[in-house]
Amino acid sequence: MASKLIQLKSKATQASQFVAKHGTAYYKELLEKNKHYVQQPPTIEKCSELSNQLFYTRLASIPVRYEAFWKELDYVKHLWKNRKELKVEDAGIAALFGLEVFCWFCAGEIVGRGFTFTGYYV
């Protein structure tokens, strides 16, 4: 066990040295590639304005998303009404979707308990 700890410490040291050596260059390159997204001048007022724009843009998109939700719900109701004509492929897709939702729920529960499977902290 101690040898694994020493290996882990060695890898962490190597990673931190790599970041210290190449981190600044990566940061500058990243900013250079994405400079068209940077607002000039980069002030607190500009950040506040952009934050408000994002908030109110999202707020304005609620009616469109609300409408899309009801269209999806109507589609599901139509499928349920005509379930005798349902194809095996559609049922398979629905089953896979349900399984995926269940798995995300289980993963969320595990994360919420601090990555323990029993729920008790040791």
UniProtKB/TrEMBL annotation:
Its main location: mitochondrion. The keyword Mitochondrion applies. InterPro entries: ATP_synth_F0_gsu_mt. Keywords: ATP synthesis, CF(0), Hydrogen ion transport, Ion transport, Membrane, Mitochondrion, Transport. GO terms for cellular component: mitochondrial membrane; proton-transporting ATP synthase complex. It holds the Pfam family ATP-synt_G. GO terms for biological process: proton motive force-driven ATP synthesis. GO terms for molecular function: proton transmembrane transporter activity. It is found in: Mitochondrion membrane. It comes from the Eukaryota. Belongs to the ATPase g subunit family. This is Mitochondrial ATP synthase subunit G protein. The lineage of its organism: Eukaryota, Viridiplantae, Streptophyta, Embryophyta, Tracheophyta.
